[in-house]
Design brief:
The chain has about 55 residues and is an alpha+beta fold. It has helices at about 25, 45-50; strands spanning about 1-10, 15-20, 35, 40-45. A four-stranded mixed beta sheet has the order 3-1-2-4. Strand 1 (about 1-10) and strand 2 (about 15-20) form a beta hairpin. It is globular. The N and C termini lie close together (about 10 Å). The structure holds zinc ion. The site of zinc ion has 7 residues, from helix 1 and helix 2.
């Protein structure tokens, strides 16, 4: 399901997530969770694929 975007606070993070079925997004530890799309992040490819699927 689509939800508000979130990303990891880890410095090497390059993507944000917006689908709660994304395993990568769900693997982010709660202490590293940050809501929003960040500043220079692109959308996670897995989330993009999940978003297209109906
Ligand atoms: Zn994702």
């Amino acid at each position: 399901m689509q939800r508000k975007p979130w990303h990891s606070k880890e410095p090497q993070t390059e993507v944000y997530h917006d689908n709660d079925d994304c395993t990568e997004g769900n693997n982010i530890e709660s202490r590293n969770m940050q809501s929003g799309t960040g500043t220079r992040l692109r959308k996670c490819a897995h989330c993009a694929r999940l978003g297209r699927k109906k």
